[in-house]
């Protein structure tokens, strides 16, 4: 299942096949498809990520976040939306700051390329059998 963070992008997990010397590996790996306003991304390159049509994507669950943080739902939603707006504004003004997601990875811009770098632990939690292959292709 994927999670859509409106104005930022979609986090999900995909399965991919990779051919080794003697066998085919099917691995699960995290992906992030960027969905920031195009005006903010002028002069920036970013990888195009295709999320298969069979992956179920749901919007960010503000009710769950509210319970997890003990803040009212409207406060959590406003905070997330304002943070995304601030990050978009910084990108538009060529302030290439990193955006860290706890236990997932970092959205960063280096040499005018904006991409998501997933933490080692995030990848290995998804794929324990062929984690090295998943890491190489993430």
TrEMBL record:
Any matching Pfam family: HU-CCDC81_euk_2
Residues annotated as signal peptide: none
GO cellular component term of the entry, any: microtubule organizing center
Domain CCDC81 HU: 57-129
Record's protein name: CCD81 protein
Species whose genome carries this gene: Pandion haliaetus (Osprey)
Gene expressing this chain: Ccdc81_0
